[in-house]
Amino acid sequence: MSNRYVVRYGVMRSLGVFTNSRGETLRRGNRVIARTERGLEVGEVLMEAGDDVVAKINDPRRGQVLRVMTPDDERESRRLLEQQQREFETCKKHIAAMNLPMEMVDVEQMFGGERVVVYYLSEARVDFRELVKVLANEFQTRIEMRQIGVRDEAKLLADYGDCGKPVCCNTHLSEMPPVSMKMAKLQKATLDPTKISGRCGRLKCCLRYEYDTYEELQKDMPPLGADVLTRDGRVRVLAQEILAGQLLVETEDRRRVLIQASDVLSVVPGTRRPPREDGEGDDDRRGDDRGGEGREPRGRREHRGGRDDRPRRDDRGRSSEQRREHGRPPAEERPPVEQGTADVPPQVADATPHAEAPPAPSAEIATPPAAESPQASNPPEGS
Predict the structure, then answer these.
(1) Residue 315 contacts by C-beta under 8 Å, 6 or more apart in sequence?
(2) Which pTM does this prediction carry?
(3) What is the pLDDT of residues 53-67, one digit of tens each?
(4) Domains along the chain?
(5) Burial status of residue 131 (CB atoms within 10 A of its CB: 0-12, 13-18, 19 or more)
(6) Three-state secondary structure along 277-302?
(7) Helix (H, G, I), strand (E, B), or coil: what is residue 263?
(8) Rounded distance, CA 134 to CA 130, Å?
(9) What phi, psi does 331 have (nearest 5°)?
(10) What letters, b where the CB count within 10 A reaches 16 and e where it falls short, cover 44-70?
């Protein structure tokens, strides 16, 4: 019979591989008194710790099972729970008196009285040195302050989840791996935050449970946007039903049908592209649907002929050359300009000499007539 057991202990429900000092047989569910790196604690036996079991636990804690809990130990445990409630209220009172930016979550008292662990939430670092001195003097024991996150808060305080069962973080989860929206999208879960968020307000941990299976099944399916060959011809993949092993495809005559992934004979290489949404076409069609002129985004325009050959006009129908000439007196009525200066409208004048009129936009093909130079418009006397 194995002399090692997997024991769950503490309010954070840590897992450890503990040896049995007495050599007696323990069963699943036995409540025991164990010695850990923090002191004496109450634990629960989960199973025998074989080599295959220990290999699946990441960095297991080590300890020793001293004995199975006796009736006296049970009474002491209940007394400590009542004492923890009083210590919790005392900590809240001192935190409020010192105006510290922290929120109390829970207090844990070691079974042997070696220390008191205070769990709290805070968005920033907190200088709690004075608080520790006050609490140590009042409780007459060692004080340990531990900052936790919202997931750990749910692990300490939450009871049941939306599924009606006890929350995973407070039962079988020893670690809480990261969860992303990619997992929810791949499993086609609703993206409503209120439905995919757990008691902690973050994405539910159960979204990760089947993610590896979805990824493995998706590897055997053609990618979205790819053209594939079936016995009925060439089709394009629009959507995947991963668990059902089905594909939503679009045929060459624009019909959408649901086929089995096993019906795909081969994938046409080099055809993968994003699925086309309804009403979308090439660039020209998208431009016409907007009611515009099919122009590209600014900075990417190029001359393609047709309507772009015409000069751009404003809401009054004036071209860019007409807008520049608007409000300027005729050439013969303009005052003489000294040599080395330019006739620049006041609204665009700068400190650079020999400034010229701003050029026409690059998209315009029609070239405006060149403006006369100051020497030509004001010939010197006697010429």
Answers:
(1) none
(2) 0.60
(3) 888 888 888 999 999
(4) 4-68 (no CATH), 76-148 (3.30.300), 155-212 (no CATH), 220-293 (2.30.30.140)
(5) buried
(6) CCCCCCHHHHHHHCCCCCCCCCCCCC
(7) helix
(8) 6
(9) -60, -35
(10) bbbebbeeebeeeeeebbebebbebbe
